[in-house]
Amino acid sequence: MSKYQLLLPKMGESVAEATIIKWLKKPGDYVEADEAVMEIATDKVDSEVPSPVSGKLAEQLCKEDDVVQVGSVIAVIETEAAEEEAPVPQPYTTPVTAAPQEAYVAPQPQAVVEPATPEVTSQPIPGIDQLANRPLVQYNDSFKSSPRFYSPLVKQIATQENISIAELEQIPGNGAEGRLTKDDLLDYIKTRPAKSIEQVKPEQPVQDIARDKPAQAISVSGGDEIIEMDRMRRLIADHMVMSKQTSPHVTSFVEADVTSLVMWRDKVKANFEKREGEKITFTPIFIEAVVKAIKDMPMINVSVNGTQIIKKAAVNISMATALPNGN
Q1: Cα 177-179-181 angle, rounded to 5 deg
Q2: I want to staple 233 with a disulfide (CB 3.0 to 4.6 A). Which of 139, 216, 229, 264 is the partner?
Q3: What are φ and ψ of residue 7, in 5° steps?
Q4: Whole-angstrom Cα distance, residue 156 to residue 206?
Q5: pTM greater than 0.70 (yes/no)
Q6: Residue 175: which residues within 8 A CB-CB, separation 6 or more?
Q7: How many CB atoms lie within 10 A of CB 237?
Q8: How many CB atoms neighbour CB 179 within 10 A?
Q9: 183-238 pLDDT per residue, tens
């Protein structure tokens, strides 16, 4: 018998951690190769983690609702292979193919001589080859207090360099929709003015800012019920705030005569429900109309990056649906 260490798989660029939603196997259960062991969730995708080997699940190294770093050992599986023939643990890659998450290593601090005027540092930033296989810097959710979106790698670098959220928000971003990228932040650090000895003070770490910020007073009466948000509701709330901060929201109302549309639905809805087992709604028709309108007027399908207008080649539309759990 030999023991195989199951690692949390890489799930694409900027994804450095995942939340354990549910264990599908218990210690002592037999696991077939490619059989799912657990369900995980990230800000981008929910997926299952399969086992690359067959054997008995010997140990669970994390609990449900735990947040685990990519590449961490999450379980131990006992296989029937001989010790010397045991497979070498390799992180399983999910179908979402993307570059692996990089860990940032801060430049070594150097003595600063008191200058007459502020100087510009020329400390080189480590290359990609120096960043591989290094432990990730831990950060908490204080970045959620900022209306701007930051990737996990940007958060790591900001935490390591003691860059406050206020300072971070002043850095212009060249990413999609003006987001701050890793390269933007590293370029800023290269040209960041050095501080003299008298000016150097222990700067408040990024992760302590939200903790010291006074909480907003909420009025709760004796009969009120406090319900903790589940993971999906938290994500929905965060993304709604992010959406409002990313682009201005406007609403325009135009009346249209859809009598023919209503009559067509009334004509086909009975046969459709009998054939599909679901009622036909107006939503797919509205989506098709929007797609056709965008093709006719492609300047609707744009985003803004500073003073640049990015005209999109593809038409992507998402639709919110109700889930059985109420989300």
Answers
A1: 135
A2: 229
A3: -100, 150
A4: 10
A5: no
A6: 181, 184
A7: 12
A8: 16
A9: 888 888 888 765 433 444 444 444 444 444 555 667 777 788 888 887 778 878 88
